[in-house]
Amino acid sequence: MNKVSAGVALVTGASSGIGYATAAALLQAGYRVYGTSRRTPAAGPAGVAMRTADVRDDASVARLIGDVLAEAGRIDLLVNNAGIGVTGGAEESSVAQAQALFDVNVFGPMRVIRAALPAMRQQGAGRIVNISSILGVIPAPYNAIYAASKHAIEGYSESLDHELRGFGIRVVLIEPAYTSTGFDAHGMTPDQPLAIYDEVRAQAERLMQRGVTAGDAPEIVAQTVLKAARAATPKLRYT
Ligand code: NDP
After folding, report:
1. Ligand 1 closest atom vs CA 43
2. Residue 3 has what pLDDT?
3. Which residues of the chain have pLDDT under 70?
C-alpha cells in the first residue's frame, strides 16, 4: 500500500523511462502515486497505482482524473511526462504528423491540466510539473517539430504559472538533456522520408550504437522532479 504523507501524485507515461523513474522516486519519497500507460493492463513501478489512459483522448483523460479524485480525493502533484519525438528534416514530416505529435506533447498536458484544475483550485494548493526538454530552450537541427512542441509547452507553462499563483498552484518546467530511455525507439519516424536525409539517419544510428549519445539515467531527471515538487518556492525552470 502506498504511503500518503507527502500527498497524491499523478504521473502520465509512467510505464517507461523518465515517467517510470519519477513515479518510483515519488513513491519512495512518500507520495501516494498514480501513473498512466495507454496499455491494458497498465504496468509501472511496483506500488504505483497504474491506470490506462491516452492523453490524446478527452474522454480517457476525464475518466483518469475522475478515478483518481474518486479514490484519493485530491491531486497535489501532477507530472505531465507522456511524450513522443520525431527526428528528421522538416519537410520529411507532413503537417498531419506534426499535429499528431503536438496532440501528445502539447494538447496532452493541456487536456490533463484542464481536467485536474477544478479540483486543484478548490484545494487551494498544488504543483504542476511539465516535462519539457533542453530542445524547448535550445532548438536543434532535424528536431524542428519536436522542438516546436516543447517551446509550446514552455510558453503555456510560464503563462499558466502566473495565472495560477493566486490559487496556490505553481507550474514548473523540467528541461532534461538526452536521457537513456526508450524514447528514440518509441518515437515517430518521418512519414515522408527523403533520400537526402539518409546519411543523417545513418549517422544518428551509428552514434547510438556506439553509445556516444548515451545520456543521463532517467533516475537523475526523477530526482530533479522530486526537488521541484518539494521546493517551498519552486523555480519556473529546472534544466
Ligand atoms: P519513453 O518513450 O521511455 O516514455 C514515454 C511515456 O509516455 C511512456 O510511458 C508512454 O506510455 C507514454 N505515452 C506515449 N504516448 C502517450 C499517449 N498518447 N498517452 C499517454 N501516454 C503516452 O520516453 P522518455 O521517458 O524519454 O520521455 C518522457 C518525457 O521526457 C517526454 O515528454 C519527452 O519529450 C521528455 N524528454 C525526454 C528526453 C530523452 O532524451 N529521453 C530528453 C528531454 C525530454 P505507453 O507507451 O505505455 O502508453
Report:
1. 47
2. 45
3. 1-4, 208-214
Return the pLDDT at 119: 98
Q: Complex ipTM above 0.95?
A: yes
- CATH fold of the domain at 8-238: Rossmann fold (3.40.50)
15 is catalytic: yes
Ligand 1: centre distance to CA 106 (Å): 13
DSSP the chain: ----TT-EEEESSTTSHHHHHHHHHHHHTT-EEEEEESSSS---STTSEEEE--TT-HHHHHHHHHHHHHHHS--SEEEE-----B-S-GGGS-HHHHHHHHHHHTHHHHHHHHHHHHHHHHHT-EEEEEE--GGGTS--TT-HHHHHHHHHHHHHHHHHHHHHGGGTEEEEEE---SB-SSHHHHSB--SS--GGGHHHHHHHHHHHHTTTT--B-HHHHHHHHHHHHH-SS--SEE-
**Domains in the chain: boundaries:** 8-238
